[in-house]
Design brief:
- This protein is an alpha/beta fold and 318 residues long.
- It has helices spanning 45-51, 63-77, 117-134, 189-196, 236-248, 258-267, 292-315, and strands at residues 7-8, 56-60, 93-96, 101-105, 108-112, 140-149, 157-164, 171-176, 179-184, 209-216, 251-255, 271-281.
- The chain is 30% helix and 24% strand.
- The protein binds 1,4-anhydro-D-erythro-pent-1-enitol (R2B).
- Residues 61, 115, 145-147, 220, 255-257 line the site of 1,4-anhydro-D-erythro-pent-1-enitol.
């Protein structure tokens, strides 16, 4: 293989019984292994037993949002071992490192991933290793987050039905051994349908949900066609042309992690989805202009949708 070549691999692990089985032959030969960034003990039998029942991993940018989700799930679904609902932090397990924070409530593990694909890739490698070590099976991964809308107003929740990255290709571009590596990004249409059907599950809050393609960018500024970064190498006309091209390609939102999440989950055969709420209509402006209250209201929509989805699963006795 030449140093310049781009490799596309789709050699997934074959796991027919739903158990998490990672496609890395080296793992079983290591003298010592640890989860360097999340620091959940990989060899503690009590911890692994506790994690063995995980069925949902929810990830999102900030520790605060993931903590809120874990608190909401604990409150509304009675999922924790500790039945004291008056306790705000009703978690079975929680960790905070310099990099990431995680909160486990019953069969749901909520973890923050920071900004961008490198950050989400690091935490996902470690979460996947934890799931395998704990002997988990039939796990669903859901990213919840915020995004820019293409012709969509703030408050619309987008469920990703396909991802385009730079070059308008449906691949996650990373690297291995100094060579570019392209991994296919796969969406699970059944999961998208299941999640979107939860939009009207609760009469109190009718969520405005749109299913559509996502553009996954490497950066918040130039990669997303903004004019307000510290430098900008293109004109306003170029920006309009890019945003129009996104729209004509069927893209309805822009964020920064979907390609890595869906490609890495596919690589280890974990079903996954991405749910992001629009905080700015990029066809109108670059900068979100919501008040703090509007922002926290809007940020709660993906949390509400994922809670309804998980609630449905447990009410079906899954
Ligand atoms: C949405 O919001 C973050 C940038 O502000 C990033 O993580 C994303 O995808």
């Amino acid at each position: 293989m030449s140093e310049k070549s781009t490799v596309t691999t789709d050699n997934n692990s074959a796991c027919t019984d739903g158990c998490v089985k990672l496609p890395n032959p080296h793992l079983s030969t290591l003298d010592h292994d640890a989860l360097f960034h999340i620091q959940v003990p990989l060899h503690d039998t009590d911890t692994l037993k506790d994690f063995s029942k995980i069925k949902f991993v929810c990830i999102g940018g900030t520790p605060g949002r993931m903590k809120l989700l874990a608190q909401k799930l604990a409150r509304e679904l009675n999922l924790t071992k500790c039945q004291d609902n008056s306790k705000e932090d009703n978690f079975d397990y929680a960790f905070t490192t310099e990099r990431y924070s995680g909160f486990k409530v019953g069969p749901v593990f909520c973890v923050n991933h920071g900004i961008g694909q490198p950050s989400v890739a690091v935490v996902l490698h470690e979460v996947f290793k934890l799931l395998q070590a704990a002997g988990c099976s039939n796990v669903t991964l859901i990213r919840i987050g915020t995004c820019g809308g293409i012709g969509l107003e703030p408050g619309t929740t987008v469920i990703t039905s396909g991802v385009l990255t730079a070059g308008f290709k449906e691949v996650y571009v990373t690297s291995a051994l100094g060579r570019p590596l392209e991994l296919p990004v796969k969406v699970d249409p059944e999961l998208v349908r299941e999640i979107s059907s939860c939009a009207s599950d609760n009469g109190n809050l009718d969520l405005k949900v749109k299913v559509g393609k996502t553009f996954c960018a490497e950066d918040f500024y130039q990669s997303q066609g903004r004019l307000d970064g510290s430098f900008c190498d293109y004109s306003k006309e170029d920006q309009i042309c890019f945003l129009n091209k996104l729209q004509s390609s069927g893209v309805c939102n822009i964020e920064m992690e979907s390609a890595a999440v869906l490609a890495l989950a596919h690589k280890v055969q974990i079903r996954a989805a991405v749910i992001c709420v629009v905080i700015v209509n990029r066809l109108k402006c670059d900068l979100p202009s919501l008040t703090a209250e509007e922002m926290s209201q809007i940020e709660s929509y993906p949390l509400e949708l994922v809670t309804r989805y998980i609630k449905r699963h447990f009410s079906k006795g899954d």
